[in-house]
Amino acid sequence: MRPFKNISVVPNIPERITFLRELSLNFWTVWNPEAERLFSEMNKSLWLKVGRNPVKFLKNVSQKRLDQAAESEEYLKLYDDVVEKCGIYKELKKSWYGKNYANKEELNDLQIAYFSAEFGIHESFPIYSGGLGILAGDHIKSSSDLDIPLIAVGLLYKNGYFEQKITKEGSQQVIYNSYSFSDFPVTPAKNDFGEEIKISVDLPEGTLMAKVWIADVMNTRILFLDTDISENPPEFRVITSQLYGGDNEMRIKQEMLLGIGGVRALRRVGFTPTVWHMNEGHSVFMALERIRELVESKKVNFIQALEAVRASTVFTTHTPVPAGNDAFHHSLISKYFGKFWRRLGISEKEFLDLGRADIDKTSQMFNLTILALKAATWKNGVSKLHGEVSRSMWNDVWYSIPSVEIPIRHITNGIHVESWLHEEMRKLYDKYLPEWKDNLLNLNYWNKIDEIPNEELWTTLKKMKGNMIDFVHNRVIDQRRRHGETIEQLREIENIFDSDTLTIGFARRFATYKRATLIFRNMERLKSIINNPERPVQIIFAGKAHPADKPGQELIKKIYEISRMPDFANRIVILENYDMEVGRNLVSGVDIWLNTPRRPHEASGTSGQKVPVNGGINFSVLDGWWVEGYNKHNGWVIGDSREYDNTEIQDNVDSVSFYDTLEKEVIPAYYSRQGKDYPERFLGIVKESIKSNVPVFNTHRMVKDYLEKLYIPAFEYGKKLGNDDYKKAMQLAEWKKKVRTEWDSVRINSNSKREDGEEIPVNYKVDFSATVYLGDISPEDVSVEVYFARYNINDEMENYEVFPLEMERETLHNTYIFKGTVQLEERGRYEYSMRVVPKDSDLPQQHDLGLVRWIEL
After folding, report:
1. Residue 592 lies in a domain
2. Distance between CA 628 and CA 769 in Å, rounded?
3. Comparing 8-12, 148-152, 444-448, 572-576, which segment has the lowest mean pLDDT?
4. Number of domains in the chain
């Protein structure tokens, strides 16, 4: 053994620029170009080499460069400007929340805990896999910008998500790197005595310990849990090794740590959240831990604690595909929660029932999404269409209630604009829309886009495309050099793409429903399109497939093979290792963003929202956010809004639509110059894309929606049920218990003799009467209603109306007559029925119990 030990000598930051240390431990540089310049201008090549990571940069920059910066008047002016700007940013009184809510005394205790399995803040912090994590990262950044009182919780993965290499044969190669947390902008959480904070979670194999780390995203913080510590045995230390790695047993351990451990970490660090947000079902065990706390500390029973916890809980579902929702076999749940349900004071059956729909008592799977739906009062999908899909998808949880009334609403996703905005486009906005940051949600203000001269806009777009092409060349050279290609072959890469050619981008997770190979269904037609000598087209692909998703990996291989065919060699390329850096380059450089999911399987699709802000145009299936974003003038659609039972037919129809629209609309718009140096019609669509999408599909609007539609209602309702030692929660729980117990005896019969198919005039008053037997339920505890569903000429349900009836009298013991008048103001075909629904002034929404009794025909 060599008699040597390691020691690291790090640069000494001069006192004049010591703020660089604080800045490096804050993610503000991610979306602040001036702050980033403080590092990049000191040593540009090193900045790029360390992946734009300020922590690693300061550990590796030379002392000479630091000393020179501290003596440079130009550098110090930039430095002082950034320090001042940072101070202004942190001032509460200047923030949106400070102006609108900070002075409202009733919201003084508002603190939101945001749980997510992954966070995509920046590519130098690789603890994200794709859209879910990047959305979480953008959520955090906008919360910071608006100064919303939010604290986030996640896991700190030693190996992150995998790095993707594509072999010479086109196969995906999975590589897990080992990261040092000293290279990340995270610091250990410490108590008042300076001791590192650690929490524990009981597992069947023993006690799992986790260290708590803190990351600052300017005004917002994230707590991260790390099990790779000396207190744990080897099998526990790997629990936070990989994001979405391992088998179901590893997954359940990670999710117990995130949910149960996350609550304990918040308590230990000193946070007292009043609203709890689960970003997808991975963190749902958080609700169970909070129920346990109440059962053991407040001496309430399980159903009372559940009522109190769900009052302040928000759940966002992101997955419109059943297989994408985590579910564990009952044997696994019993293994890991056998002691836990005893602490809740409930039986094994009662616990397992929490994870399955009431209509399906035989299921042996414990579904985390179903548990989340039951454990959260406030539930949402991530686009309007996804809200509809979610209500239909989880209808079994409310099996007697029409899907349109199921209490899952939607808040459409957005993007953090400054994180995805190219520097050249930012300059253009600063010049022609100087107050754009303060008017991000002002649709009228964004009409100023029309004032940008077409020549200047076109020059900017061409420059960004040139930057992207340089990036593509460098990536492809690195890949093919690794494959052992000759110098002559590497030189040919310079012929791949040019800035005068219409460029289409497709980058996302390679799941089969996203149909990455849809455009290759007619190879000859595609070949003639992209190789047209006068109007050529070039296409960039990028994306990872989950290591266990073999069909997804086959899609990557197929596209790679096509890209190496002589007829496609310089027109199609697939980049490896899709991450935020690749994404940023593509969304700012392509002319057209392609999205081809099999409708309605795209929950939102935020990659397409990053394109308009950079002057790109969407060409997409009418799915996810594009259903709301498309206005017939700001892009193009593939197919129509129909959904097909036969996927082969759907794929054929959509592929033909793609070819036709590309040939007849997209290409002519791009190449038609009409005597000018730029495509005027195309730029008209670009401008419409910017001004119609940017002020709507951003996370500032999204987070405000969460605050106003979910967080504040959850805070107020949680406070209401928590007052007087949870007195109202206990009363509501007991009332619900009584209603559920008696509900099977409820009956309703119509006294109205109306003919099926009867025709009545608009606004005609129709009398309805019903006889209702309620058992031991009081008439004041129900709403007796006439329910009308209106259908259009295509026999599609368009709307519904509910007309409550009033109790007239009691006829027999527990039997009542209800009467009322209905007046329909719209023509159309209606279906109607009568029903009984539980009613209480403390219910946050009508169908909170999921109970309804319809008339018996």
Report:
1. yes
2. 41
3. 8-12
4. 4
Residue 28 lies in a domain: yes
**Is 735 part of any domain?**
no
Q: What angle is formed at CA 161 by the lines to CA 158 and CA 164, rounded to 5 degrees?
A: 130
Closest alpha carbon to 454 in 686, 691, 243: 686
658 and 801 part of one domain: no
Q: Is the pLDDT of residue 466 over 90?
A: yes
Q: State the CB neighbour count (10 A cutoff) for residue 478.
A: 12
Does 467 share its domain with 550?
yes
779-792 pLDDT, tens digit each: 999 999 999 999 98
Question: Can you give the CATH number for the domain in which 173 is found?
Answer: 3.40.50.2000
Beta bridge partners of 593: 505, 618
**Other beta carbons less than 10 A from residue 762's beta carbon:** 10
Nearest CA to 348 among 329, 326, 361, 333? Answer: 333
Task: List, in sequence order, every residue forming a beta bridge with 247; answer none if it has no partner.
Answer: none
pLDDT at 93: 58
Tokens 């959509």, residue? 654
Q: Are residues 721 and 635 in the same domain?
A: no
Nearest 5°: the CA angle 405, 410, 413 is 170
How far apart CA 293 and CA 281 sit, in angstroms, is 20
pLDDT, position 338 = 94
- Measured in degrees and rounded to the nearest 5, phi and psi for residue 180 equal -100, 125
Length of the chain counted residue by residue: 857
> Residue 788 is part of which domain span?
746-854
Is 817 within the bounds of a domain?
yes
Same domain, residue pair 649 and 506: yes
φ and ψ at residue 791, rounded to 5 degrees: -115, 145
What is the DSSP-derived secondary structure letter of residue 667?
A: H
**What's the whole-model pTM score?**
0.96
Q: Model confidence over 358-367: pLDDT tens digits?
A: 787 788 999 9
DSSP reduced 3-state for 638: strand
